[in-house]
């Protein structure tokens, strides 16, 4: 199983970025997927997650600005980041597993599979 996170880069405050998490060897349809981030010197924190039937959860710091979505045909999950702030700068990771759950806990890190991160830097 491989999860490939991509789409990171340098973005100005207030701008947008879309991260992708493409899976191989794992069917994301019906499972749960989470996005996490880790800034230098800080613990990895949950950003957003999506459950088996599409229910979503967000960290309070990103609610209303970030949107998680899933494209089952492409076996890919996206994180649309709008109105980014300097505090959003971090390495972003996706995680997934086959757990069937109607809802997901954004801070739960108990995923079976993790991808390598993609760097997001918010700076003018």
Question: How would you describe the overall organization of this protein?
Answer:
It is a single chain. With 124 residues, this protein is an all-beta fold. 0% of the residues lie in helices and 48% in strands. The mean pLDDT is 95. The relative contact order is 0.34. The protein is globular and about 40 Å long. It is built from no helices and 11 strands. Strands 2, 4, 5, 6, 9, 10 and 11 form a 7-stranded mixed β-sheet that branches. It has a 4-stranded antiparallel β-sheet with strand order 1-3-8-7, with no helix packed on it.
Question: What's the SSE blueprint?
Answer:
Elements: E1 2-6, E2 9-11, E3 17-24, E4 32-38, E5 45-50, E6 56-58, E7 66-71, E8 76-81, E9 90-97, E10 113-114, E11 118-122
Parallel strand pairs: 2-11
Antiparallel strand pairs: 1-3, 3-8, 4-5, 4-9, 5-6, 7-8, 9-10, 9-11
């Amino acid at each position: 199983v491989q999860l490939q996170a991509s789409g990171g880069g340098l973005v100005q405050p207030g701008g947008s970025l879309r991260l992708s998490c493409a899976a191989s060897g794992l069917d994301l349809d019906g499972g749960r997927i989470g996005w996490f981030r880790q800034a230098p010197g800080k613990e990895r924190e949950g950003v957003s997650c999506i459950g088996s039937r599409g229910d979503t959860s967000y960290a309070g710091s990103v609610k209303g600005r970030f949107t998680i979505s899933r494209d089952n045909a492409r076996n890919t999950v996206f994180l649309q980041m709008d109105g980014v702030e300097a505090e959003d700068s971090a390495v972003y990771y996706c995680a997934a597993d086959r757990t069937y759950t109607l809802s997901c806990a954004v801070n739960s890190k108990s995923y079976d599979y993790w991808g390598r991160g993609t760097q997001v830097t918010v700076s003018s």
